[in-house]
Amino acid sequence: MPTSSDLLLLRDKLRVFAEARDWDQFHSPKNLSMALMVEVAELMEHFQWLTEAQSVNLAEEKKRPVEEELADVLLYLVRISDKLGVDLLKAALDKLEKNAVKYPADLVRGSAKKYSEY
Ligand SMILES: [Mg+2]
Q1: Cα-to-centroid distance, 115 and ligand 1 (Å)
Q2: Which residue segments constitute the domains of the chain, with CATH numbers given?
Q3: How many C-beta atoms lie closer than 10 Å to residue 115's C-beta?
């Protein structure tokens, strides 16, 4: 799990990367959220048409390409968080706490129902 300083390192490297290419002008939250969605789709493409079992036991030659799409997703998450002034790690930890309240373990254990279905 990334620590706050890991994410700050990524944030800073992305700033340098974008600045060196004069791409900051394109990095609006609108564009970045769309780019994030494209990367999520690229990740999903690797699992499209696989069975559940194939997706769990991913073929060795698929692991590296999947890893790269996961990295793309994280990079865009970090970049869009930076542009919006969001502390991504804090936001994720806060959301996890909120989800724990929404889904009490003793109530939902073993169920995939949505909180509104309880
Ligand atoms: Mg990609």
Answers
A1: 32
A2: 28-108 (1.10.287.1080)
A3: 12
8 vs 87: CA distance, rounded Å: 9
Report every protein residue that has its C-beta within 5 angstroms of ion ligand 1: 39, 42, 72
Cα(77) to centroid(ligand 1), Å: 13
**For 18-64, how does the pLDDT look when each residue is reduced to its tens digit (9 = 90+)?**
999 999 999 999 999 999 999 999 999 999 999 999 999 999 999 99
Long-range contacts of 27-32 (CB under 8 A, 24+ apart): 27/79, 27/83, 28/83, 29/80, 29/83, 29/84, 32/76, 32/79, 32/80, 32/83
